[in-house]
Amino acid sequence: MQPFALNYARPAVEREAATPYVYDAGLQLNVLLDGRIAAFDHALLRELGTTTSTAGSKTHFDD
Amino acid sequence: MTVLILTGEEDVTADMVVAHLNASSVPVVRLDPADLTAGAALSGEYVHGTFRGHLSSGERLVSVEAIRAVWVRRPGVPAARAAQPSAWLTQETAQALYGMLRDCGARWMNDPDAARRARYKPWQLRLAQRCGLPVPATLITTFPQAAREFAERFPDLVVKPVSGAHPQEPPRAVPTSRVAPGTDFAAVAYGPTLLQRRIAKRADVRLTAVGGTLLAARKETAADADPDQVDVRFAPPGAPWRPAEVPRAVARSVHAYLRRARLAYGAFDFAEDADGTWWFLECNQSGQFGFVEVDTGQPIARTIAEWLAGTARPGTPVAES
């Protein structure tokens, strides 16, 4: 009784790595531990995949 | 005049835009509806034929009348982090927040009504056809026999979720997947199934539309790529995204799509075939863009910031609320 498309489902991969930045409410930006703005560190963003088109988001599927 | 950004704290992609707005000295209030009523607050007064409203988030307070643009980026579920969250409180909070904002005169990226409609993938396919974009032969059905007949006409098919959503409990992902020859379609009867002719692609194309500005990027498919690996989101990293020229006919059609959909922002996915044709797959009205900017250096965040600030170049189509 499983819908056809679910025959192609696979377990969702949860991101395990903690992001090395925290939200600064004053700046309204996420900042790295050394105070730099995380969004400017493109190498880091690429590594973390936090800006990628992801699949399986619980709340948003407009990726 | 302030730009209101509805998104969560962890949204580092939104940060890319906030940084540009900060650099331009454009006031920003970043508010996650999930933080109402713990960390964020709202108030609106309808007295003597007038309206006065205020929103606060963290230490910032903005009058609703001072909001020039609303960017609905990745808003949390309203009141999800309230002291005593409930479905009822979420509904109450959504009504209060979005109801108050709807007529504030700000520009929306994207207008909530337009956004809701634009999420329907079948609607997207039809609109793309009407706008002259090539759409791969597609069937959405609960009739197993219709699926069998479609597979006879188009033997090389992929299947993907109609909604684009992925099942939870337990969390699973349903990538666009190739349907093997001789597949049994009986289970089509248990849920709407979207089957589509597979495009033998030589590249994936992501076209990010911001107002009237189109920024396209292309990710080449490796010559030795597994043809069963259809969904670029689940494929190994491979080639980076590179800036791409938008064919004039595609640009015309995309502008028509945005106009008819009343979208100020859209992330279009295409599959480019061996002839160079861009086949429309979908348009995500709030699609990610950070990964494209990171790879290509295209100024997507800056373009969004300029649109929100109202400083985008003249002639840029604007979706009014």
TrEMBL record, chain A:
Protein name (record): Putative ATP-grasp-modified RiPP
Organism: Streptomyces mexicanus
Highest rank taxon of the organism: Bacteria
UniProtKB/TrEMBL annotation, chain B:
Gene Ontology process terms (BP): SOS response
Family annotation (Gene3D superfamilies): ATP-grasp fold, B domain
GO molecular function, one term: ribosomal S6-glutamic acid ligase activity
InterPro entries: GRASP_SAV_5884, MvdD-like_ATPgrasp
A GO CC term assigned to this protein in UniProt: cytoplasm
Residues of the MvdD-like pre-ATP grasp domain: 2-112
A Pfam family assignment: ATPgraspMvdD
Protein name, entry field: ATP-grasp ribosomal peptide maturase
Species of provenance: Streptomyces mexicanus
